[in-house]
Amino acid sequence: MVLNNKEFIGLKVFTKSGQLLGRVVKFYISEKDQRVVSYDVCQHALKGVWHAPEHHIHGAQVIEITSEKMIVEDAVVKALVQEKEAVRVVSKVAQEPSQSRIKT
After folding, report:
1. What pTM was computed for the model?
2. Residue 26 CA: distances (Å) to CA of 11, 53, 89
3. Where does 8-102 show beta strands of DSSP type E?
4. What residues have CB less than 8 Å from 89, skipping those under 6 apart?
5. pLDDT digits over 51-90, tens only?
6. Residue 1 confidence (pLDDT)
7. How far is the CA of 30 from the CAs of 5, 21, 33, 35, 91, in angstroms?
8. Where are the domains of the chain?
């Protein structure tokens, strides 16, 4: 099977356990060996409209690609949850007042 870029962009992405992650909005190809290295996925993607990617999936995490969907390892979701939690913690710390700025 061969998919062209118009068929590939917008392809639904599911985990192995069936959870919908979103749709492919961009993919990256290696100059060296002309293979897809990674994919950007957005949960609320509309064809023809640019969206900031919500997930970045490495090619090694892909189990299967058909003309209907892409299936990725369940571990992708665990990694994404951990990444979002780390960002939340960093954001929370950045919003807290610095002890050095507090005058007593």
Report:
1. 0.68
2. 10, 8, 28
3. 12-15, 20-29, 36-42, 55-58, 62-65, 69-72
4. none
5. 666 788 999 999 999 999 999 998 876 655 555 555 555 5
6. 80
7. 15, 24, 6, 5, 33
8. 5-96
Looking at 3.40.50.1100, 3.40.50.11420, 2.30.30.240, 1.10.10.10, the CATH number of the domain 5-96 comes to: 2.30.30.240
Residues 6+ apart with CB under 8 A from 36: 27, 28, 29, 30, 59
- Rounded CA-CA distance 88/33 in Å is 37
- Quote the tokens at residue 97: 């007042």
